[in-house]
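I wish you would study the pair of lines that follows with an eye to the fold:

===
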Amino acid sequence: MRKIFILVTMLAAANLLSAQKNVGIGTNAPITKLDVNGALALREGVAISLSNGGARGGANDNITLPYITGTTDISSYYHITGPTAAFSLYGIAAVNGSDGEIITLVNNTGYTMTIVNTTSSGAGDSIITQTGGNLVDNASPTEGSSVTMQYSKNANGTGNPGWVVLTTQNFRITNLQGNPVSNTTPSTNQVLQWNGTSWVPSSVTGSPGPSGPSGATGTAGATGPSGPSGLAGATGPSGPSGGTGLIGATGPSGPSGGTGLTGATGPSGPSGGTGLTGATGPSGPSGGTGLTGATGPSGPSGGTGLTGATGPSGPSGGTGLTGATGPSGPSGATGLSGATGPSGPSGGTGLTGATGPSGPSGGTGLTGATGPSGPSGGTGLTGATGPSGPSGGTGLTGATGPSGPSGGTGLTGATGPSGPSGGTGLTGATGPSGPSGGTGLTGATGPSGPSGGTGLTGATGPSGPSGATGLTGPTGASGPSGATGATGPSGATGASGPSGPSGLLTNGTTTGVTPYWNGTSWVVSSTNIYNDGASIGIGTASPTAQLSNTATNIVGSDGYGLTTTSLGWAINTNSAYAIGFYNASTGSSAQGLAVKIAGTASTNRLLDLSTGSSQATAGTSVMVVTGAGTVGIGVTSPAQALDVNGAIHLGSTSTPTTGTVRWNSTLNDFEGYDGVRWISLTGLQDRTLIYTKD
């Protein structure tokens, strides 16, 4: 069988998965993805063998970290062996290019180790120190040193990969801001001072002269300017997130931002008459929280209560139905007029209004001056006077002489009354809205936290049932037969016995029904247990597995479900576990649950815990244990022995083993145990820039 999938809500008696998909070890109320109430042990890997001296491209460069036996995973903790004199480390080969991997190297050889800063090479095995210079330890046969580094694909900010030094233990400072520090032994009360070439121990005061008499106390001088800030120490790894503090009082409102530029003014529509502002209705009292109804008028704002401590997050409820939008409130009074924006472009010339009625005609203008008369024609010859005839008809009118020049224009008559104004043109369409601004860039993802150690081995499951009784041995050989006795006389035939009673069971009516005894008689029509000859169903006539109480398949987070040879179990009950096991023995060999598969690949699931509202579809993974021995919490394909997508909470211990990590609540620091003593993993317990000598 490829997989064994068991729906359980516990990994072992000390482990618990919460509804928020968090995992607790030693606690039943985990507050982060992995919450450990105790110490976390990081297993030590095979020791790394180095040589004396070392060189870039030669010895002690691009060293390969040994894999955990039987895997292709590296450890988180290595001891250094081999050197019989001072030696240097130039580079460490990346393992599968895994971004965020963290390792700790411990030097107990008794010889000085130098961590060489090789950031300028840009190679994938480079080492980048905090100071930009080499790091030299104070190793001795009785007191070792350690260095913790993290692999980053952008170690020096230019896209080049390498190992970044996070913390050191028992190292001496050889550089400050890239400048060398003298190795001269300091005297009492000397301090570091820059001489133009290096930092050297120096005395800052001359020999004291004899004390003069005390003068009267002068008035207090003005406070001098603050001295420059000291060099910032290397940033340690982030500590666990503290609980949410109380919300502080609301600060005063900041000044209002300047008025943004006024958009181009659209063409003015006809001004409507300003309606009367309705009176604002009184605010209604705040109602209790019920189903979202129509939005009523806003109630009065209550005073801000003190913020209570943040409780653990409950499971997210389904999104409620959106209530109907309440009616719009009455319009508020018209606000003060804003500053007049720049004038918009002139609108097109409106249509010419209808011509108004003509005004009254102006008075007749003055008559222009009479033009000069044309020249007189010559006098015709006088004809002889005949007798007077009858009066002739009127002769034809002579041709009109040329017109005289036009007279000047008469005075303009008074303007007539204006015609009525034309109706206001229609309002132009509103211009389209400007495009929305693009979404800002997503910030870079912070480096992954260190991989946790391998989880505790689950308790051994209960002993299996006793085996069946062995076959009976062969019967021994029969002894010799005795002599046959004389035949006795035949006895009289006895009377016939009474008929036996009828059988207890009658034939059933439904295929697969299993009968049971109810205390009085056999029941052959029960719907409790079905057996169709291949599978057994409890409460179902169509079992989805060889033994099942459901006809619906149960599917894990990887999409695989049950087969006809599986065990399937489903319930729908609050405040109860689907499956429970209990071993009442208190002996030292008492066990809880054992799960075993033959597959050892990372794609084999030894355990798959997930959540989901439907048992027939793939759920959301909470925790997986693969056949390769890797554990994922919030991760479906763990790349390390323990791969956690979320925060880890550590407690303390007083009985450590080599590689144990704990939280020291007294010093507020993370510590690792190297087999001899506890070592700070952040360096907060071993930092000073002033030389002192007892």
About this structure: The CA atoms of residues 481 and 487 lie 17 Å apart. Residues 50-180 form one domain. DSSP finds no helices and 32 strands in the chain. The first strand starts at residue 15 and ends at 17.
